[in-house]
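ping. complex inputs:
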Amino acid sequence: MQNAVPEARIRSANDAPVNSHGHFVLYWMTACRRVEWNYSLDRAVSWAWELNKPLVILEALRAGYPWASDRFHGFIMAGMCDNRAALKDQNVLYYPYVEPIENADKGLLETLALEAAIVVTDDFPAFFLPNMIRSAAKKLTVRLEQVDGNGILPMADADRIFSTAYSFRRFLQKNLMSHFSAPPKASALKGRSLKKPSRSLVEKIQKKWPSVPLRDLNATPENLKRYPIDHAISPVPGEGGSVRGLRMLKRFTTSGLPHYADGRNQPDQQVTSGLSPYLHFGHISPHQVFHEIALNQKWQPQKSAQKKADGRRAGWWGMDENAEAFLDQLITWRELGFNMCRHNEKYDQYTSLPQWVRDTHDAHVKDKRPYVYALEHFENAETHDPLWNAAQNQLVREGRIHNYLRMLWGKKIFHWSASPREALDIMIRLNNRYALDGRDPNSYSGIFWVLGRYDRAWGPERSVFGKVRYMSSKNTARKIRTGDYVKQYATHGRQPSSSH
Ligand SMILES: Cc1cc2nc3c(=O)[nH]c(=O)nc-3n(C[C@H](O)[C@H](O)[C@H](O)COP(=O)(O)OP(=O)(O)OC[C@H]3O[C@@H](n4cnc5c(N)ncnc54)[C@H](O)[C@@H]3O)c2cc1C
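pong. complex structure:
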């Protein structure tokens, strides 16, 4: 196929054939919710071109997924507005669908697929998406292809789970360079005159499952109220969508990046990119982020190619220390999480922790905790510690916590819960309920890191933590300026928790 997406990124989810009598090619957009730098779209466009059929893009949003709330619906719907605008003048039929009631979308994909030649979708390794694709694959009578656009390294190219960032970095240093030769297209539809979709192409189907009109995609309280989701978690105004994501990326490369190496651990300096929710919902591609950094640094790939694969962070890319530090987060740490989720279906379960971690937890599970809080005390920021409460309040109000405080936030949940298993459960619930970037492979990297994953054993052995790395609010307050932060986030400003 012309302009092919690398084979390592494509896998068939079923054994069904391509239906040459189908009326269109269907791209079922589920994780890479963008029209630029998107391998799945590239693949769907290639099929449409090859088969000389129009392209239909279904971007659907369900109501009944875990933690569905105004916050996440608002973010995703902002992205739908951007996609709709970007595709308005293209020879493509864009079909945004937001489920009005739970299970209303039942049958939509199968009905569309009955008329399609092939269905292309995104390959995301976490949350409910792998199950959703597996169950769709069983039902469709036409070929369903999954395309992996998650990272610079195709997930299939690492054949094992990496237990440290160091070992993964070494692997990347040996294997990543070849993957820069076939990035996704910045603009898949440019220069491709695809067959024009007729108005009637999916008209009948849309009668039963209507597209959302543009006015209803605005994440206003009135619009969001109509969906059966958690309305206690408010949307974050102005957030969401590829347009905003790109603006943030540009702002970061000019003003945050030059201070990243020294400033990334200072919450009050705001030098980090803020891109994690945009990466999570697929509103921006890691390839595009890399491309901007490479342009900014006038990157010469041969400099990286000469580097020895020693697993060390510094000097890997031949860029300045800020860009090197940033790319280590964007590529090594971010893709480490995708590696885990792809190769271990139990990535979110306690038993996925390394043996030494579980052993040291067991040895200290009966240690007396200085405080023990239940989920609702943590959720309502009712601990004795003003800094911890401020971090939780920021999470509730804004759907974010700065990484350094997020580490402390997690470590203290570990410290003040009845057991490590309970701490895990509390972290997952709070992170995934409130964080815009939650429900992501990196959610599990961060949460399990708190408990010991990807880390080494530390001494001296401590009460509760055992050999797991310890953090305290007192030390954190010594290292970073927290006074204004604690004042700013003294309250969570939320209605009493709903029982959703
Ligand atoms: C308890 C805990 C929970 C976490 N939950 C999440 C989560 O739900 N979703 C999430 O994306 N990240 C999570 N992280 C990792 C990290 O906090 C965020 O990725 C980071 O703060 C996002 O901010 P940023 O986009 O400004 O990052 P930047 O510093 O600008 O980094 C750029 C990108 O690199 C990646 N990245 C940065 N730091 C890390 C890290 N430590 N681990 C993995 N990838 C990283 C992210 O994709 C980020 O957007 C968690 C960390 C902890 C300790």
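The chain has three domains: 1-149, 242-343, 350-488.
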